[in-house]
């Protein structure tokens, strides 16, 4: 048994003193689902979950659908030698991701929390963007009529949604097949806008806690060929109306600080920035 295998036997993520600092509110897989997967990498006292974009826990090395990978979880047993232990786990992760065709590794952190800025920089990450959360209290929204046909998602829309998501989002935010299917399976509300038979916009909201009155909109995307025609607005208005009827009071969502189009749209509909912004980090993986 190699040292690495011995660690794998002995160290469970849940025996580590978790320092979960990758924002859970952005994701819909539980850490336990990754623990036994090939995408969980450990030292004797640290672990990282590092996943090529779009991969699921059961996916093999060939699953990468992009040149990006995400670190979704950092954990360490105690504060001792954190750089050494994380570097060990990270090196394994990087080798595996590189072998799957990943060239850039991404992660998120919250400014005042672990892993610190200094630690991430020591591990080779650079801060590239800021992610903000906005929120809104729904107070008796009206159902406003728009020229667009907004309807609920149906299972046979899945392939169109995947294609639309790929067209609408840039790396590393676009979803892969596994992520999209999982998201749709756990969504509280998914709406699409259809033009003739083509899906040109979608919105997906999930409930991330036991609080049935709070919902997070995790996806909003409009086909680049159909933007600035009110489709994003139509999706959000219909979602607010439907969610309010289901008893939802708070709706939140995220966007990049530099995504002026989305921010303008959200501000026009009354969303306000909340919560400490998260930092987005990137590390190029050399061939
Ligand atoms: C953000 C996005 C969903 C907007 O969809 P859309 O259908 O173009 O939005 P709307 O036509 O309803 O725009 C409503 C208002 O938002 C603002 N807006 C939208 N796009 C804008 C842009 N490119 N530049 C400036 N303002 C913009 C405007 O105020 C606009 O009103 P106006 O056209 O009367 O000036 C779309 O650009 C998109 O899919 N972007 C990529 C994915 C993304 O960023 N998703 C959201 C963040 S997670």
How would you characterize the overall build of this protein?
With 287 residues, this protein is an alpha+beta fold. The chain has 2 domains: 129 residues, Aminopeptidase (3-Layer(aba) Sandwich), CATH 3.40.630; 110 residues, Gcn5-related N-acetyltransferase (GNAT) (Aminopeptidase, 3-Layer(aba) Sandwich). Helix content is 28%, strand content 30%. The protein is built from 8 helices and 11 strands. Strands 1-2-3-4-11-5-10-9-8-7-6 form an 11-stranded mixed β-sheet, sandwiched between helices. The protein starts with a helix and ends with a strand. Coenzyme A binds next to strand 9, helix 7 and helix 8.
Question: Which residues sit in consecutive blocks of at least 5 with pLDDT less than 50?
Answer: none
The chain-level mean pLDDT equals: 89
The CATH architecture name of the largest domain reads: 3-Layer(aba) Sandwich
How large is the share of residues in beta strands? Answer: 25-35%
- Form type: globular
- By CATH reckoning, the class of the largest domain would read Alpha Beta
End-to-end span in angstroms? 29 Å
């Amino acid at each position: 048994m190699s040292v690495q295998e011995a660690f794998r036997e002995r160290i469970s993520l849940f025996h580590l003193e978790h320092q979960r600092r990758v924002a859970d509110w952005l994701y819909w897989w539980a850490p336990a689902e990754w623990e036994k997967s090939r995408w969980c990498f450990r030292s004797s006292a640290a672990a990282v979950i590092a996943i090529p974009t779009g991969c699921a826990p059961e996916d093999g090395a060939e699953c990468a659908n992009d040149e990006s990978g995400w670190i979704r979880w950092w954990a360490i047993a105690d504060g001792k030698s954190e750089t050494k232990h994380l570097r060990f786990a990270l090196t394994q992760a990087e080798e595996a991701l590189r072998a799957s065709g990943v060239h850039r590794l991404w992660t998120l952190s919250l400014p005042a929390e672990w892993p610190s800025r200094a630690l991430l920089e020591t591990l080779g990450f650079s801060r590239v963007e800021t992610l903000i959360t906005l929120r809104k209290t729904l107070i008796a929204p009206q159902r406003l009529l728009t020229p667009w046909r907004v309807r609920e998602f149906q299972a046979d829309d899945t392939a169109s949604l995947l294609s639309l998501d790929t067209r609408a989002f840039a790396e590393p935010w676009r979803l892969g097949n596994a992520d999209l299917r999982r998201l749709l399976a756990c969504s509280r509300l998914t709406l699409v806008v259809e033009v003739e038979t083509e899906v040109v916009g979608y919105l997906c909201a999930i409930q991330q806690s036991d609080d049935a009155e709070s919902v997070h909109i995790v996806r909003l995307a409009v086909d680049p060929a159909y933007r600035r025609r009110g489709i994003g607005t139509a999706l959000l208005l219909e979602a607010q109306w439907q969610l309010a009827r289901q008893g939802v009071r708070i709706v939140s969502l995220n966007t990049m600080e530099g995504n002026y189009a989305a921010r303008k749209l959200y501000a026009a509909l009354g969303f306000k920035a909340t919560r400490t912004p998260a930092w987005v980090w990137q590390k190029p993986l050399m061939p």
